[in-house]
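Now produce a polypeptide, keeping tokens residue-aligned:
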Amino acid sequence: MAAVVGEGRITYDARGLAEPHAEAPRVAEIQDGRATFDAHDLSTRQINLELRRLVYEEGITEVTV
């Protein structure tokens, strides 16, 4: 099967797409079972890491971003 025009020139480099030892930024303030943090200066990846930490490690069910 022949490649579609231009398809042979496409390359993919996954380096940099994932951090092997990514850590949550730990910026949330936790009070009375609720967490709050300002996501303005965080990347999407950092926000997700912080949310995962709050839900799975801290057991928080209410988060305000």
Observations:
- The beta strands are 29-31, 34-36, 62-64.
- Residues 36 and 62 are 9 Å apart (CA to CA).
- The chain has a mean pLDDT of 84.
- Residues 26-65 form one domain.
